[in-house]
Amino acid sequence: MAIDIVLDSFPQLMKGLAVTIGLTLTSVFFASILAIIMAIGRSYSRQPIPFLILIYEKIFRGIPLLVLFILIYFGLAQAGIIIDVFIAAVIGLALHSTAYQIQIFRSAINSIPEGQFTAARSVGMSNFKAMRHIIIPQMLRLSIPGWSNEFTIVLKDTSITIAIGVIDLMRQGRYIIVREPESALYILLFIALIYFILVFSINRGLSYLEKRYIISGLEVNNTR
Amino acid sequence: MKKEMKAISMVLIISVVSLAVVLSGCTEEEKKNKIIVGTEALFPPFEYVDEDGEITGFDIEMVTAILTDLGYEVEIKDMAFQQLIGAVQTGIIDVIAAGMTITDERLEQISFSIPYYTSDQSVLVKSDSTITITNYSDFADLTLGAQTGTTGALWVEEHLMNDTWLKEQNINYTLNITLDTYVSYTDAVQDLRIGRIDAVIIDNPVGNAFAEEGATKVIYVISTNESFGLGVKKENTELLQKIDQALEDYMATEEWNNLVLKYFE
């Protein structure tokens, strides 16, 4: 029975799911930190820093993820540095996602009226304080919708990592399909369902944050 | 916001520190006696993943047996078939055990052990298919499927789609064959079952393994006489010699016969 096969395959799929989630969380985490720093750097620092960040963006948005993975894993190995596949995958996903997230945070920064920073400075706040208390909190709040998109994109991008040998949810599913070709459809549907539930809960969680930290007066108030 | 900022910075610090620890742990770990064997575990019965989630199969049992005899600790690593040669060249893996046919093209890139298995290519079709093959002209107008980079795909390109070769077979017209290539044979067989392609060109034992499921059947065997070998980096002649010797010895044992019976009878 199809149900039996899906149930039997459950533990094996969960092993893959753990890898998929671990990969996503670690990559998004590092990408977000890098992207926040670089977005602020691009908007508020002196040349040549914004220009260097721009070059970074152009490069990593231009390289397909698959090429990036192979470059990092096999390229470094060629140079004598053999790193764990999981770490190679995290580096690739994070570098790639950073380039996209810079834009998300930058557009959030750009939507904060310029006068706020000037006003903060005029009441005696240092650059750092103005950044920390005025700009960054608003930027974080305003970037939630775009950021939650990027989060789910990274989650789905993890399935490309098999090229270098990361055994994620999708790969575990294929192992089962090799054994049980008859139930391919059910297993694939089940995997799709798992991805859907993940993406759905991430989006729900983040839209809760969006409501919790609403900036009254600034937004159209019908976030649902 | 203050409390949250504190919490966020704590989480930040903890995770950066822990990642640094993990990273340094990874690089220090170097075992001299460990051999990493690369494969693609989507190729039954040579390599696949069993119900317990372990990679197993004919190649895996064989390579584990001979490398363990040589005193190595064996780790099996699953990756994409197309990346295996690059991985052995760069030292990410030490040995390829992936039902890989010894070809001139591959010999330019890596070394192969003595052959441990001889295979032909079989033509796999749906069980209810009416296609029959008695000579090469029967392939006319068919849509064929094979995995990218395999000898099955290569055979179709170099023979059925090659007018010079066809002329040698006294076929003086183009066969009008379409070749669809897939990331893995699992996908090709899946498409065959759906009816998107007419036949799959696949290594004989693997074709039989798929046919055992009942939805497909092998209707013709193309005698290509290919030999499977274990792949090793060119510079690694010492390991290759050891493997050749161990393989030769192993193939004379009862254990080898049992392994062949277990997977191919």
Written account of the structure:
- The complex is a heterodimer of chains A (224) and B (265).
- Chain A has a domain at 20-169: MetI-like fold.
- Chain A is flat and about 70 Å long.
- Chain A has helices at residues 2-44, 49-62, 65-78, 85-110, 114-122, 127-142, 144-157, 169-179, 184-212.
- The longest helix of chain A is centred in the N-terminal third of the chain and has 43 residues, at 2-44.
- Chain A is built from 9 helices and no strands.
- Chain A has 224 residues and is an all-alpha fold.
- The mean pLDDT of chain A is 89.
- The relative contact order of chain A is 0.14.
- With 265 residues, chain B is of the alpha/beta class.
- Chain B has 2 domains: 34-116 and 229-264, Periplasmic binding protein-like II (D-Maltodextrin-Binding Protein, domain 2); 120-225, Periplasmic binding protein-like II (D-Maltodextrin-Binding Protein, domain 2), CATH 3.40.190.10.
- In chain B, 41% of the residues lie in helices and 23% in strands.
- Chain B is built from 10 helices and 12 strands.
- In chain B, the strands form 3 sheets. Chain B has a 5-stranded mixed β-sheet with strand order 4-1-5-12-6, sandwiched between helices.
- In chain B, helix 2 (58-69) packs across helix 9.
- The longest helix of chain B is centred in the first third of the chain and has 27 residues, at 2-28.
- The N and C termini of chain B lie far apart (69 Å).
- The interface between A and B is medium-sized, with 34 and 34 residues.
